[in-house]
Amino acid sequence: MDKFYHSVHLDEDLCRGCINCIKRCPTQAIRVRGGKARINKKFCIDCGECIRVCPYHAKQAAYDKLDAIRRYEYTVALPAPSLYSQFNNLDDVNIVLNALRLMGFDDVFEVGAAAELVSEATREYISTHEEDLPLISTACPSVVRLIRVRFPNLIPHLLPLNPPVEVAASLALQRAMEKTGLPREKIGICFISPCPSKVTYAKAPLGTEKSEIDCVMAIKDIYPHLLSYMKAVGEEPEEIGTCGKIGVSWGRTGGEAGGLFTESYLAADGIENVIRVLEDLEDQKFSQLQFVELNACSGGCVGGVLTVENPYVSAVKLKRLRKYMPVARSHMEEEKAEQFVHWTSDVVYEPVFSLGATMMESLARLNQVERLVRKLPGLDCGSCGAPTCKALAEDIVRGEAREEDCVYQLKDSLHKLSVEASTLAEDMAEGKRGEKETLRLLQRYIQKLSADMAKLDEDGKE
């Protein structure tokens, strides 16, 4: 399994080499080289921010299409709570659930129902592990991946529980195998996702060796099909919903924390805000906190790039939908979910940002970076294809860039060269240099000028 698998990829034909993505990527995983963006596989956490900001739609998410259900004899749909928030005037989730069955799925298992089980398990874990407080939610795969590569000191504070989608997949699979008697390979567990990070989780999960999710479909792909099937459901749909207020609330910021029945929590959304909170947590700026809920997308899962509705409108719709629901409808004892909730493998630090293979090499290279940063203009303009001057300096030390990639350094170099050439011309006129020495210096200047002009021409094309 590829631990650096990622679902966000680039369509080079659409990319125009602008720098919108490099300025917004939270892990500085993108560079513009040769007029095209490049995504560093080790740095990317699949938050989807580059998809959100790319004006040319060159960043895209890989996910399964609806016809993926044909690969299996029996399929189960796992609708995320955020799916319900995409529809206007929805007052009964059973309309959506029955429409999914009409669409071609044999069964439906709500991720919101599994979310209530995770909430129950979280309350129990907090009460018995006070030494690990504050605990950080592991429901958002992008946040877990971010902590894994950038905040290793916070790994012990990660809540060692599977996200609701994995719990739902395991329970849905168990139910399908008992109901049909089919072998595992003939059953398809299909998650309907609001974001690309869940696609990555299914392919390369953290906290468990293998995910039971077989395919991940985008809400934006399922949405137009569902609309017509929802009309065919009728006014009195079959009652198949199994989640209450707690489960549905997981679709928006604060919903997970709200299911813990405590006021000692912090909830943040948007990847930039998440990073600020993690930095403050690492600096131990928060006290008396039990739980930290973090969502990479603004507004929570309703703000995922694979949704269709405005996230703030979606949050209001979820709030209205849950108004007449019971607090919770799924419980650990009834579902016998204990075996599926807890992690079965640890999340370990991945030092992808290290500059060297050893501590001494990293320190030596860090000194090189600092010297280079002092030479660079410090404008963080992005013209070099890196998001900041420091990022360019690190690329230079890694051998992935040159000082001349900075247009300001290149202009200074050309200016110095022109001054030296002028001095040489004056010396030649006054006869201060010999013919051989003059020719040698002239040849060197021409070679340097050709290289710099070629670089300027390349930057002009970009």
TrEMBL record:
Keywords: 4Fe-4S, Iron, Iron-sulfur, Metal-binding. GO terms for molecular function: 4 iron, 4 sulfur cluster binding; metal ion binding. InterPro entries: 4Fe-4S_dom, 4Fe4S_Fe-S-bd, 4Fe4S_Fe_S_CS, 4Fe4S_Ferredoxin_RnfB, Fe_hydrogenase, Fe_hydrogenase_lsu_C. Residues 6-35, 36-64 form the 4Fe-4S ferredoxin-type domain. It holds the Pfam family FeS. PROSITE patterns: 4FE4S, 4FE4S_FER_1, 4FE4S_FER_2. Residues 364-423 form the 4Fe-4S domain. PANTHER family: ION-TRANSLOCATING OXIDOREDUCTASE COMPLEX SUBUNIT B. This is 4Fe-4S dicluster domain-containing protein. It comes from Candidatus Lachnoclostridium stercoravium. The lineage of its organism: Bacteria, Bacillati, Bacillota, Clostridia, Lachnospirales.
